[in-house]
Specification:
Layout lengths: L2 H14 L12 H21 L6 E4 L2 E6 L2 E4 L18 H9 L6 E5 L5 H9 L4 E6 L2 H12 L8 E5 L1 E3 L3 E6 L20 E8 H7 L7 E4 L9 H6 L4 E7 L4 H11 L3 E4 L6 E2 L1 H12 L4 E8 L1
Parallel strand pairs: 4-5, 4-10, 5-6, 7-9, 10-11
Antiparallel strand pairs: 1-2, 2-3, 8-9, 11-14, 12-13, 12-14
Amino acid sequence: MNKRQFIEKLYSSLNQKTVNQELLSDGNRFLRSNYIFNLINYLAKILNYFNNQNDIVFENNIPFVMIKKIKLMICNPYYLKNVGKKISLSFDKTENFLSKLNIEPKYILDLGACWGECSIYLSSIFREAKIFSIEGAFKNYKIFKTNLKHNPKFSSNIITEHLIISSKNGYEEIINSVSTMNTIKRKSTNNDKSKYEKVISSSLLSFIEKHKIPNIDFLKIDIEGSELNLVDDLLIAQISAMQIEIINYNSINLNLEFLSKLNRKFNFHEPDTWKIINFNKLKNLVTNHLKQEPALDVFLSKK
C-alpha cells in the first residue's frame, strides 16, 4: 500500500464510520505515523498563522482549549474565533458583579449550563459553594460531563442534572444539538420535529424544594427566551442576585414586561459601574441594545 492508497482508505473508513483493520496493521505503521506526524505539524502551522493565544491540549484523544486554568472541550468552532488575543471567559463580569455586592455565594444555580463554562469557572473561584447546574439538551449535557471529568479540581461541588426548568412539572421538548442556542419547542419557530427531544421539566420552586436550597445566592439564567416562563417563581424564591440573558427570541415589549415584573422585588445594575439604575434607564438600555444586538445580560440584586 502506498501513501495515496492509505489516505483514500482512511477517508473512506472515516466517512463510513467503520474500522479498516488493514490500516491498523503493523505493516502500515510507518504510513500511519507519517500521516499523523504531518497532520499535527500542519495544525501547528495553522494555529501559529492565526496567532492562536490559548493552549490546545489533547486528553484521551479529545481536544480542549485552555482558558485560564480551565479545560473546555472543543466541541464546535465557538472557541476558535480569535486572532492574536486570548479567549477570555465571559463570566469574569459575573465575578466582578458578585464582588461588588460583597456576595460570597454558598448556593449557585446555573440554568442553561450548556457545556459548563459558567459553572466550572464559578467553582474555580468559589470553592465552598454548592453549584446546581441544569442543562436541557442532552448533547450539550454530555459535553458538560466530559468537561467536568477533565477539570477534577473544580468538579466536586457541582451537581448536574439533565433537566428543563420551566413553568410546570412534567415534560418539555427541546432542540437537541451541540449549540448555545437550543430552544424549547413552544418558544421556537423551528418546525422540524426530528430536532427535538422530550425532557423532564420542573418548576424552579419544585427544584429548590427537592434539593432543600435555603437561599439562592446567585442565579444565572441563559435559556434562550424561556426565562419569561419563570417570572412567578422568581418573584417567590429567595434569590440574592441574578444574571439573566434577555434575547430577541421574544419581542422587546415582552422582555420589558418581564423585567418590569421583576422590578417589584429586584434592583437593576448598570453593567460597568454596577450602580443601581431605575427602570426607565434600564428600559432605554435594553431597547437600544436589542435593536442592534441579539441578546443582553441583565444583572439584578434583591431590594
